[in-house]
Amino acid sequence: MSLVSRYRDRLPIGPATPDVSLGEGGTPLLRAPRLSEELGCELWLKWEGANPTGSFKDRGMTVAVAKAAEDGADAVVCASTGNTSASAAAYAARAGLRAVVLLPAGGVALGKLAQARATGASLLEVQGSFDEALEAARELGRRGTHVLVNSLNPHRLEGQKTAAFEVVEQLGATPDVLALPYGGGGNTRAYALGFAELGASPQLLAVQAASRDRTAATAIRIATPAHRDQAEAAADVVTVDDDALLAAWRDLARLEGLFCEPASAAGLAGLRARRPAPASRVVCVLTGHGLKDPAAVDATAPPPVPVAPDPDAIAAAAR
Q1: Per-residue confidence at 113, pLDDT binned at 50, 70, 90?
Q2: For the chain, first and last CA: distance in Å?
């Protein structure tokens, strides 16, 4: 069942809205036993990398693109540091719409570019920052030639709020704390919206990189959050440096087996900096799959070791 079908009564969906689905939503909520022991809490990982294009963006994009198609749009546009581009391109292709993606020069991981290229989007590298690319995308939206599908589109947040519904359904209760990465702030707003609709009020921790415009976590390399005021009104902001963020990223893979992209580890880094109360129930949102940014592994993990096809040599090399 598609996300729109499952939550139709809680979304801005009518009889004329097409179901533009790739099978998004319903992502796993996984217990993290080793990290729970470290933090002294009951830690769960909401694995949004299991969405069709590998990130949480698909939840909002299915609604935004469906509404654009319903309104007779010919094209959608977004500015993106990566995940939005992959999602917008895929859902536009599914709906039969053109997609224009504005990329800040040198600021997008290769895995995300590959997805957008494969699905036929027009990729344009803006010679400037993400903020400048976003303003250009907004202007195209104002002109009426394209529908903006960044998180400034309210339909995006409507779709993304469904993750809060799932967390409560899967836990059977409201978590005490939910931690997630803080880039543009749209996802923080969406979780706050979803929990509010349920009458729930967990503590939200929005975790940002200390060097927003230079962080190794490209998915949150956004100097000026578009949703800053609303996100920071809804959540406690925690700031971590790249060393802490990358350590959390490595530990999620090595201790719990979840290979996320570096930005997705921000929530864990924030929990380590702002320790949750003992025995509290905590959810950490992992927003994107590690295959989005394979170059990050090259920079931090050793390469394969050459070895002869001999069992003794293999056993010795594997010690």
Answers
A1: confident
A2: 47
The CA distances from residue 146 to 93, 139, 279, 309, in Å, are: 15, 9, 49, 57
Torsion 136-116-156-265 (CA) sign: negative
Q: What is the pLDDT of residues 274-294, one digit of tens each?
A: 999 999 999 999 999 999 888
**pTM score over 0.70:** yes
Q: At what angle do helices 162-171 and 186-197 cross, to 10 degrees?
A: 60
Does one domain contain both 45 and 62? Answer: no
**135 and 93 both lie in a single domain:** yes
Q: What is the pLDDT of residues 4-36, one digit of tens each?
A: 999 999 999 999 999 999 999 999 999 999 999
Q: Which residues pair with 47 in a beta bridge?
A: 286
φ, ψ dihedrals at 122, nearest 5°: -85, 110
Q: Using N-to-C axis directions, what is the helix angle for 266-273 and 242-256, rounded to 10°?
A: 110
What total of structural domains would you count in the chain? Answer: 2
Letter string b/e over residues 99-125, b meaning 16 or more CB atoms within 10 A of that residue's CB: bbbbbbeebbbebbbebbeebebebee
In sequence order, what are the residues at sequence separation of 6 or more whose Cβ sits closer than 8 angstroms to the Cβ of residue 93?
99, 119, 120, 121
310 in any annotated domain:
no
Q: Assess contact for 261 and 274: CB atoms under 8 A.
A: no
User: Interhelix angle for 83-95 vs 110-118, to 10°?
Assistant: 10
CB 9 within 8 A of CB 249: no
Contact 58, 87 (CB under 8 A): yes
Does a structural domain hold residue 314?
no
Strand ordering across the sheet containing 281-286: 29-31, 42-47, 281-286, 177-181, 203-209, 236-240
Element (H, E) at 44: strand 42-47
